[in-house]
Write a structure and sequence with these properties.
It is built from ten helices and seven strands. It is of the alpha/beta class. It has two domains: 113 residues, Rossmann fold, CATH 3.40.50; 70 residues. It has a five-stranded parallel β-sheet with strand order 2-5-1-6-7, sandwiched between helices. The longest helix is centred in the middle third of the chain and has 23 residues.
């Protein structure tokens, strides 16, 4: 099995690109979706986070905004959250890989390079900064200041591109699809 790692900064097109791989029969594991499952009612992160951050759990689910507030008020608490959540995410990913019955799988991991998770080939999605900014702000869920704050905490796009085995430009859906097809054709050959 060939394990691909997909990454890219916020607003670069990871979700759309992962969907292109999925549409071509490649099983996809999404780190963000795994966290959402872990934070949902009955999720494995709810009880340990409720114990560590009782103000961040309401009605049996992790309130992400309240958890962000807790981290903002005590930056050291981020390490505590990571100590709880990261092993659960790793277990979810391991379960996916164990169950996957395909020649190629894709792991959508926003912090692929930062975490150093080993993959056979890394793929970075990219777009010009003005496209990235427009995409993020068009969602209507983030302020310009919050977007800038996220950018300061993420590895720069140029560094990600330099480290990647493959780079997919996501300026148009057609261009991204053609690049996904080319990568899969090369890997299947």
């Amino acid at each position: 099995m060939i394990v691909l790692g997909l990454t890219g900064s916020i607003g670069m097109g990871k979700t759309t690109t992962a969907a292109l791989f999925a549409a071509r029969g490649v099983p996809v594991w999404d780190a963000d979706a795994a966290v959402h499952r872990l934070y949902a009612p009955g999720g494995a992160a709810v009880a340990p986070l409720a114990e560590a951050f009782p103000q961040a759990v309401r009605d049996g689910t992790v309130d992400r905004a309240a958890l962000r507030e807790a981290i903002a008020s005590d930056p050291a608490s981020l390490k505590r959250v990571e100590a709880i959540v990261h092993p659960l995410v790793a277990a979810d990913r391991a379960g996916f890989l164990e169950a996957a019955d395909a020649p190629i799988v894709l792991l959508d991991i926003p912090l692929l390079f930062e975490t150093g998770f080993p993959v056979d080939h890394s793929i970075v999605v990219t777009a010009p900064p003005e496209v990235q900014r427009a995409r993020v702000l068009a969602r209507g869920t983030m302020t310009e200041a919050a977007f800038e704050d996220i950018l300061t905490r993420q590895m720069p796009d140029a560094e990600k591109r330099a480290r990647a085995d493959y780079v997919i430009e996501t300026t148009t859906p057609e261009a991204a699809a053609a690049q996904v097809d080319a990568i899969l054709e090369e890997l299947r050959a």
